Amino acid sequence: MGFLGSRDEPAEERTVESRKKLRASLDAQIEAFLKNGGEIEEVQSNITADPPKKPSGEYGNRPI
Q: What pLDDT sits at residue 24?
């Protein structure tokens, strides 16, 4: 299976067994990642990808 998301598998085909296979596949990938020197880092829940941006000073700069 190329993509493990639910969009790749129609709802009618999702079963407990298919989810177990996906979970086993994911566990195997994680195991291989860790064996090859990979490291899993826990990220705090309050961390975002985009830091807050400074407000732009363009408010009211258009002529009347």
A: 94
Amino acid in the structure at residue 40: I
What pTM value is reported for the model?
0.52
Contact 14, 6 (CB under 8 A): yes
Q: Six-digit token pair at 23? A: 């979970």
Domain parsing of the chain, residue ranges: 11-36
Which helix (H) or strand (E) is 29 found in, with range? helix 16-35
**Rg over CA atoms, the chain:** 22
* Closest residue by Cα to residue 23 from 43, 2, 42, 4: 4
Tens-place pLDDT, residues 2-45: 545 556 667 677 788 888 988 999 999 999 999 999 999 998 88
